[in-house]
Write a structure and sequence with these properties.
It is built from 11 helices and 29 strands. It is of the alpha+beta class. A hairpin with a 4-residue loop joins β20 and β21. α2 packs across α3, α2 runs parallel beside α4 and α6 crosses α8. The longest helix is centred in the N-terminal third of the chain and has 26 residues. The two termini are 35 Å apart.
Length: 622
C-alpha cells in the first residue's frame, strides 16, 4: 500500500491532523525504537559520546513544530510512521542544529552499553556505509520493514537511490541478536581525560578571547570563505538575510517584466494567486522559513537556512481549497502549503526551461503545475508513446489542470511539452518531466556523432529524440527530487552481425541542481515496430557523458539470431581505436564507425579500452 501523503516534493508531511497529546503519547511509547533508528543512521565510528546525544536530540525533535489540528483522531500507526520519517530525515542529514545546548555531564563521557565483539564489528561495518544504506539497515533491523516499505520510506525521506541503499545495507555480514543493541537509552559513563581536564579549563578562557577577536574582525568587515563548491546564495538587497517577516517587503516582479528582461528565470515571474494581498498568511510563511528547524524540509543537495536577502513572491493562493505560497530567494524555491508544510529546493542558475514550471500541488493521484509567464502553450506528452500526439493542457492564471499520475510512464510523473512565447524565441518547444520534486527536470537529446565538433544537447521534441526517450525513459541513472536535467546522447550506431539490424548506443546523463550527477550507457537493440530490448551496460556517478567529459566507450554481450554469442563494443566521436583483452584472442581495431563485434564465449569479463585520436585511453563507465 502506498502511504505517501500528497506533497509537492514527494517528501512526507509531518504527522499532523492529530491531537498534540496523541502524538506525544506515541513518541513516548516508541522512544527507544526511534532513538535506536537515529543512532544507527548517524555517522558511525565517530565520537560515540556526541553520536549518542545527537540520537536523543533527533528523536526528541521529531515532535516540536508539528502543525497539529485538534479534533481529528489519528491511528497510532499513522502517527508513528510520521514520527519515524522525521527521525530518518533528520538523521540522514548527519547533523543536529540545537535550539539549545545538547544534554551533557561535566567531566563524564557517555556511551551505549554495548561492547561485545559482534556489536563492535557491526559498528565498523556501518561506518563504511553511506547514510542512506545505514538508514535502510536500521529500518530493517529495528522495525523489520520489508524491502518495498524501506524503499518507499527512503524516497519520502529524500534519498535519490533507495534501492541502491538497500542493496548496500544487505551486504552487512555481522549479525547481532534481536532486538538490535546500540541502545541510546541504556548508557554507561566514564570520566574523560583527567590529566588534560585542568589544562583544558585554563585554555578555555584563552579560547573565548580568541573567538571574541574573530567575531570582532568579522563585524569590522572581515570576509569568511565558503567551502569549495558551496552554494553562494545571492541577496537581492545586499543583506545577509531578511531582517523581518514583513510581507510588505516581499519583492514582486511586474506582470510584463519577462517581456523586458534578458534574464528569464524565476526572478522574472510575477506574483500570482488570489491571496497575494493576504499579509497574515505571507507573514506566517516568511516567519517559518526564517525560523527554520525541523518544520522546514529540504530536497537533496539543497542548503538549509533562512532566506537570503528579501524573497520574491511567486504565488499565494488557494489551490483546490488548500492555501499554497511559493517564494524565491534568488537561489532556492520555498514551497509551503497548509497540507504539507514547507519544502525548499535548490534553483540557482535556472533559465527559460529549468525555470519554466513549479509543482504547485501534488496528491497521490494528480499534480498541478504553475507555469512561467513566457509559456505560450502547454501540452501533455506520453513519453512511452512517441507516435501519440501531445494533448493540450488547460490552465488558469498559469495553473494547469490536475494531471493524472496514475498512468504516468514508469515511476515518473507527467511530462509537459511547453512552447515559449514568440516574444522569447520563435518555435521554441521543450520537455519537462515530473520526477517527484518541486521543480520538474528538463529533458534534452544529443544526436549521433558526425564529422567536426561535438554536437550540443538540444530539445527532445523531434522524432528521433522522442523515439530514443521512449526506449530509455524507464532506465534513468537516477531520479527523484533534486534532478535538474536529463540528456539522452546517442554516441554510436552499430550494424549487428548476421544482418540483425542497427543498434544504437546511448549514454543517459543525469545532472542534479547541486552539480552532482551520474551516467549510464545503454544499448538499444532493434525489434518489431522499433521497440526492441534496451540493455543497461554500465552505470557510474560523476561527470561521465557531460560537456566536461565528452568521450565514452561501452560494451556488452549479445546473442545473434543463430545462437552465437558476440561481444559488442562502441566508442564516441573521438575514439580512434578499440582494444579488447581477456575474452578470446586480443583485438586492436580502428573501425571507421568506432564499433566492433567479435564472437566471444560467455563467461569472464573482458577489458575494453578506447583510444582517442590523441592517444588518450578511456574505459567504460564504472
Amino acid at each position: 500500500m502506498d502511504r505517501r501523503p500528497p506533497h509537492p516534493g514527494r517528501a512526507s508531511a509531518p504527522p499532523d491532523g492529530h491531537a498534540a497529546g496523541d502524538a506525544e503519547e506515541v513518541l513516548v511509547a516508541n522512544y527507544r525504537r526511534l532513538a535506536r533508528i537515529a543512532y544507527l543512521i548517524l555517522p558511525a565510528g565517530a565520537d560515540r559520546h556526541h553520536r549518542l546525544l545527537a540520537a536523543h536530540a533527533v528523536t526528541q525533535r521529531a515532535l516540536p513544530g508539528l502543525s497539529l489540528r485538534a479534533g481529528r483522531a489519528g491511528h497510532p500507526d499513522d502517527l508513528y510512521d510520521g514520527l519515524r520519517l522525521r527521525v530518518v530525515r533528520r538523521a540522514l542529514a548527519g547533523r543536529v542544529r540545537p535550539r539549545g545546548p545538547l544534554p551533557g555531564v561535566w567531566g563524564l563521557r557517555m556511551f551505549t552499553a554495548d561492547g561485545a565483539e559482534d556489536e563492535l564489528a557491526l559498528d565498523r561495518e556501518l561506518a563504511e556505509l553511506p547514510a542512506a544504506a545505514r538508514a535502510a539497515y536500521a529500518l530493517r533491523a529495528v522495525d523489520g520493514l520489508p524491502p518495498a516499505e524501506i524503499t518507499d520510506l527512503l524516497l519520502r525521506a529524500g534519498v535519490a537511490r533507495p534501492d541502491e541503499a538497500r542493496r548496500a545495507a544487505g551486504a552487512i555480514r555481522t549479525v547481532v541478536g534481536e532486538p538490535v543493541r546500540f541502545d541510546p537509552c541504556t548508557v554507561r559513563v566514564q570520566p574523560g581525560d583527567l590529566i588534560r581536564r585542568r589544562r583544558t579549563t585554563r585554555l578555555g578562557a584563552a579560547a573565548l578571547v580568541l573567538a571574541a577577536t574573530l567575531v570582532g574582525a568579522a563585524a569590522a568587515g572581515g570576509t569568511a570563505q565558503a567551502p569549495a563548491g558551496a552554494l553562494r546564495l545571492p541577496s537581492a538587497d545586499g543583506a545577509p538575510l531578511a531582517a523581518t517577516a514583513d510581507p510588505a517587503a516581499l519583492l514582486r516582479a511586474a506582470p510584463t517584466e519577462w517581456t523586458r528582461t534578458a534574464r528569464l528565470d524565476f526572478s522574472a515571474w510575477p506574483a500570482r494567486g488570489d491571496r497575494t494581498g493576504d499579509s497574515a498568511l505571507l507573514g506566517r510563511v516568511l516567519a517559518l522559513w526564517q525560523r527554520g528547524g525541523l518544520a522546514v524540509h529540504t530536497e537533496p543537495g539543497t542548503p538549509v537556512g533562512p532566506p537570503v536577502g528579501t524573497p520574491r513572491l511567486l504565488w499565494a493562493g488557494d489551490v483546490d481549497g488548500t492555501a499554497v505560497v511559493v517564494l524565491h530567494d534568488g537561489a532556492r524555491i520555498a514551497h509551503w502549503s497548509a497540507e504539507t508544510g514547507m519544502v525548499v529546493a535548490r534553483a540557482d542558475d535556472s533559465d527559460v526551461t529549468t525555470g519554466a514550471a513549479v509543482v504547485l500541488r501534488r496528491t497521490t493521484r494528480s499534480v498541478r503545475f504553475l507555469l512561467a509567464p513566457w509559456v505560450d502553450t502547454a501540452e501533455l506528452r506520453r513519453l512511452r508513446q512517441p507516435d501519440t500526439p501531445a494533448t493540450a493542457v488547460a490552465r488558469t492564471d498559469g495553473v494547469t489542470a490536475a494531471l493524472s499520475t496514475a498512468d504516468a510512464d514508469c515511476r515518473s510523473g507527467p511530462v509537459l511539452q511547453l512552447r515559449s512565447s514568440r516574444t522569447v524565441a520563435e518555435k521554441h518547444a521543450f520537455l519537462l518531466a515530473d520526477l517527484g520534486g518541486i521543480l520538474p527536470a528538463h529533458l534534452t537529446w544529443t544526436p549521433p556523432p558526425s564529422a567536426g565538433a561535438a554536437r550540443a544537447p538540444r530539445e527532445a521534441t523531434g522524432t528521433d529524440a522522442l523515439v530514443t526517450w521512449a526506449r530509455t525513459a524507464c532506465n534513468l541513472p537516477e531520479q527523484g527530487p533534486g534532478v535538474k536535467e536529463l540528456n539522452a546522447w546517442a554516441f554510436a550506431e552499430q550494424q549487428l552481425p548476421q544482418h540483425a539490424g542497427t543498434a544504437t548506443w546511448v549514454c543517459l546523463r543525469t545532472d542534479r541542481w547541486n552539480g552532482e550527477g551520474s551516467a549510464a550507457t545503454e544499448l538499444l537493440l532493434p525489434g518489431p515496430g522499433g521497440g526492441g530490448r534496451t540493455v543497461r551496460t554500465a552505470l557510474a556517478q560523476g561527470r561521465g557523458c557531460s560537456r566536461f567529459d565528452q568521450n565514452t566507450v561501452g560494451w556488452t554481450r549479445w546473442r545473434a539470431p543463430d545462437g552465437h554469442a558476440f561481444l559488442l563494443a562502441a566508442g564516441s566521436r573521438r575514439v580512434a581505436r578499440l582494444r579488447v583483452r581477456g575474452d578470446g584472442p586480443p583485438l586492436d581495431a580502428a573501425p571507421a564507425d568506432r564499433t566492433v563485434a567479435v564472437e566471444s564465449p560467455e563467461g569472464g569479463r573482458p577489458e575494453v579500452t578506447g583510444v582517442l585520436d590523441d592517444g588518450t585511453e578511456i574505459h567504460p563507465l564504472s
